[in-house]
Write a structure and sequence with these properties.
Blueprint (H helix, E strand, L loop, with lengths): L1 H4 L12 H15 L6 E5 L6 H11 L7 E6 L6 H12 L7 E4 L14 E4 L6 H26 L8 H14 L8 E7 L17 E7 L9 E8 L6 E6 L22 E7 L3 E9 L7 E9 H4 L7 H11 L8 H20 L5 E4 L7 H9 L7
Parallel strand pairs: 1-2, 2-3, 4-7, 5-12
Antiparallel strand pairs: 4-8, 5-6, 6-7, 8-9, 9-10, 10-11
Helix pairs in contact: 2-3, 4-9, 5-6, 5-9, 6-9
GO molecular function: glucose-6-phosphate dehydrogenase activity; NADP binding
Keywords: Carbohydrate metabolism, Glucose metabolism, NADP
Pfam families: G6PD_C
Length: 381
């Protein structure tokens, strides 16, 4: 740590400050001592300052003796219009291949965080940022839609980042317009005694559930049920692939529990414990012919005695290596906003208030009506 800290420096460059960025450039040239060197600029600044900082860096602090890459933190705009304007500004100064829009949840170890059902830790502080953006812009726009794109994409022609991103954007462009009746909004009932921030406005959603459909040959008619929320009963990050029951199931009467529990599932879990699980029906030992649901479990902590890198470690290494498949390209960003912008407009135009739910509970009741409507069971075990 001491060796690392000895190589860190502080310089106040300002937001839109040619002189400050020129000083930054001079300091880096001094460190580089005339040798060819590459530069990565990580912008962890307020969203309203991003365009000015990026533009000033591009004009005054890029190296001419190697490559330059720029990392941008969420949020990637407040809506389609603001995102488009910022993207236009970025592309006027940088090439697409230089831009890395980072989302730390996409760097998780298990299948690169293929998460479709996600619940945040209920002790997570939300603050002003979350109140301004809410669960839709903060979690759904990037985490969830990128997850669906990675899961549902066709096999790319190679593992090159651009080939993977080409397939992801096809999925995003194929997602059908969301129907308001297929969207559930919620907000936890918070009191001053709770650990979670209670300063949220009455219309800031802390829970979102929806049924998405991808209109292409592979996924025609298959519902993608997404659920993300703060303050739920369990903290889980996982994707559950539920298989259809066979028609005319001869063993239906011999399943000794809720028939929903008898659905065969492939579960890819990141939290609370990394695991790959398969739920199948099997015969209960004995002379009878009764079935029960069993779980085949690959638990990573039991199988692999290795230190798992932090998600930022993973993603920052990808930036150094030039591997951009887990970072949003500009057309992916636009496609994601095209999916969510009509929903956000519908919420604003109709002054929709989220359904309240108990902190530490299972979320809005409406989400259970949603799964019943689409015939997909929310797993709460």
């Amino acid at each position: 740590m001491d060796a690392f800290l000895s190589r860190t420096y502080y310089l106040n460059g300002g937001y839109d400050n040619k002189e400050g960025m020129s000083k930054l450039n001079s300091r880096m040239e001094q460190i580089e001592a005339g040798y060819p060197a590459n530069r990565i600029f990580y912008l962890s600044v307020p969203h309203e300052a991003l365009a000015d900082v990026a533009s000033s860096l591009a004009d005054n602090a890029q190296t001419k003796k190697g490559w330059n890459r720029i990392i941008i933190e969420k949020p990637f705009g407040f809506d389609a219009v603001s995102s488009q304007l910022f993207t236009k500004s970025l592309l006027s100064k940088f090439e697409e291949k230089q831009i890395y829009r980072i989302d730390h949840l996409l760097g998780r170890n298990l299948i690169e965080n293929l998460t479709v059902i996600l619940s945040e830790d209920l002790s997570m502080p939300l603050g002003r940022y979350f109140d301004g953006y809410g669960v839709i812009r903060d979690i759904i726009h990037s985490h969830i839609l990128q997850t669906i794109a990675l899961l549902a994409m066709e096999p790319p022609i190679s593992l090159d980042g651009e080939d993977i991103r080409n397939e992801k954007v096809k999925v995003l462009r194929s997602i059908r317009n969301l129907e308001p009746s297929d969207v559930i909004l919620g907000q936890y009932k918070a009191t001053s005694g709770d650990k979670v921030d209670v300063s949220l406005s009455s219309r800031t959603p802390t829970f979102f559930a929806a049924a998405l459909y991808i209109d292409n040959a592979r996924w025609d008619g298959v519902p993608f049920m997404i659920k993300a929320g703060v303050g739920l009963i369990k903290h889980r990050v996982e994707i559950r692939i539920q298989f259809n029951s066979v028609p005319g199931n001869l063993y239906r009467e011999r399943i000794g529990h809720n028939t929903h529990l008898a659905t065969n599932e492939l579960i890819l879990r990141d939290e609370p414990d990394e695991a790959i699980l398969v739920k199948i029906n099997n015969k209960i030992p004995g002379l009878g012919l009764n079935l029960d649901a069993s779980e085949l479990n690959l638990l990573y902590k039991d199988k692999y005695n290795v230190e798992v890198p932090d998600s930022y470690e993973h993603l920052l290494l990808d930036v150094i290596d030039g591997d951009n498949h887990l970072f949003l390209r500009s057309d992916e960003l636009a496609a994601a906003w095209n999916i969510l912008t009509p929903v956000l407009q519908w919420i604003d135009q109709n002054n929709i208030a989220p359904e309240l739910y108990e902190l530490g509970g299972r979320g809005p009741v409406g989400s259970y009506y949603l799964w019943a409507k689409h015939g997909v069971w929310w797993a709460d075990d």
